[in-house]
């Protein structure tokens, strides 16, 4: 296991280099000029040329990239073109909101998805199974921005049960939990649908195995058969889906943060892209990519903890 962790951490280096290069080139080849965004509509050609020179935008792309990477290696993600604020500082201020939203969303997705998938598998070909399938299709199909708007209209505006927008309190407080409920449901619904379908398939495959029939024949209670024998062996593919979805949720909070006016990394990326703030976008993407790889490493470790038969050489 220690060898796996070390190998995966070393693999992280070329992966992040590749991601940073693709993002860097894509941003610089996209239409738009950071100097024009900084200078504004009244800037003269001389002003724009001076801004480009100060930012190093007149240098060849590869020179700019290697200068950026040399800073990243030293722990310096650069400074925002617009605010002159440290990119690391700006991201760290907003990251807790994004992380808390992703955690709340994956909890919602896991509870709903695993529960619905188990019920659908145990009650196969019944009305509950059909209802779960319809719910999963609806969860995948409904756009986040539409669902979020409907939830705000119903639960925040009409019934006033939850706040309409913003995150102002820590998530472990009552007010903080109330602020996260609607965004977490909005972001977690699509993942819940995927987890439900995977859970159903995995449980149906395991529940027909010989050892399940043996456990029932020995008189083991059905609840114990499902929870102890069936679910533990069916959780490997389910954990894979949960881990991948958590990684996607960390990078997919952009729309939800915009709808609920949450000051997170996703919203920061939207503003940075609109302002052609290259360094801010690159820093945010590197953070999300790093976390995605680390989450996948954690999933591999959980495999061995759940199923002792799995060993990493």
From TrEMBL:
InterPro entries: BPD_transp_1_N (IPR045621), MetI-like (IPR000515), MetI-like_sf (IPR035906), Opp2B (IPR050045). The keyword Ribosomal protein does not apply. The chain crosses the membrane at residues 12-30, 101-122, 134-160, 180-199, 234-255, 284-306. It is found in: Cell membrane. The complex is composed of two ATP-binding proteins (NikD and NikE), two transmembrane proteins (NikB and NikC) and a solute-binding protein (NikA). GO terms for molecular function: nickel cation transmembrane transporter activity. Coiled coil: none annotated. It holds the Pfam family BPD_transp_1_N. The keyword GTP-binding does not apply. Residues 95-303 form the ABC transmembrane type-1 domain. Keywords: Cell membrane, Ion transport, Membrane, Nickel, Nickel transport, Transmembrane, Transmembrane helix, Transport. Belongs to the binding-protein-dependent transport system permease family. OppBC subfamily. SUPFAM superfamilies: MetI-like. It comes from Melghirimyces profundicolus. One of its GO terms (cellular component) is plasma membrane. This is Nickel import system permease protein NikB. It is a multi-pass membrane protein.
């Amino acid at each position: 296991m220690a060898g796996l962790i070390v190998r995966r951490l070393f693999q992280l280096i070329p992966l992040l280099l590749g991601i940073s290069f693709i993002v860097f080139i894509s941003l610089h080849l996209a239409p738009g000029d950071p100097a024009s965004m900084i200078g504004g509509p009244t800037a003269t050609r001389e002003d724009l040329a001076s801004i480009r020179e100060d930012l190093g935008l007149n240098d060849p792309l590869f020179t700019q990239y290697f200068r950026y990477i040399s800073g990243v290696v030293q722990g310096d993600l650069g400074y925002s073109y617009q605010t002159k604020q440290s990119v690391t500082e700006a991201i760290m201020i907003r990251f807790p909101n994004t992380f808390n939203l992703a955690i709340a969303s994956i909890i919602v997705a896991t509870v709903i998805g695993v529960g619905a998938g188990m019920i659908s598998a145990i009650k196969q070909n019944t009305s509950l199974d059909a209802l779960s399938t319809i719910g999963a299709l609806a969860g995948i199909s409904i756009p986040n921005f539409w669902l979020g708007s409907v939830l705000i209209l119903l639960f925040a505006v009409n019934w006033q049960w939850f706040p309409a927008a913003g995150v102002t309190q820590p998530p472990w407080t009552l007010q903080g939990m109330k602020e996260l409920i609607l965004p977490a449901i909005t972001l977690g619904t699509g993942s819940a649908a995927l987890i439900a379908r995977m859970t159903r398939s995995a449980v149906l495959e395991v529940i027909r195995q010989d050892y399940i029939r043996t456990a029932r024949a020995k008189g083991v209670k059905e609840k114990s058969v499902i929870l102890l024998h069936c679910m533990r062996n069916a959780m490997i593919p389910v954990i894979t889906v949960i881990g991948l979805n958590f990684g996607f949720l960390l990078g997919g909070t952009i729309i939800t943060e915009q709808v609920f006016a949450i000051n997170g990394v996703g919203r920061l990326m939207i503003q940075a892209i609109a302002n052609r703030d290259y360094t801010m976008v690159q820093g945010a993407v590197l953070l999300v990519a790093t976390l995605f790889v680390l989450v996948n490493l954690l999933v591999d470790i959980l495999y061995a903890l759940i199923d002792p038969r799995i060993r990493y050489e």
